[in-house]
Amino acid sequence: MNLELDCRGLLCPLPVIKLAKALPTVAVGDTVTVLADDPAAATDIAAWCRMRAQELVSAAENTYVVRRLS
Question: Which residues form the UPF0033 domain (predicted)?
Fold first, then answer.
């Protein structure tokens, strides 16, 4: 299952907060796609994935795919 979060128009840290709340709702191995147009999202989402030991599968064109690892 892939969950999509539309965070376009939201400033950081809101996309990361929404990601943190949504990740537990998907199964381990599934992904959450975050649509975020705030330039800070690229840095913030990647850093959040490193700190939380989750996988940033891709980050391109304001679309970030995060796989739940635990």
Answer: 5-29
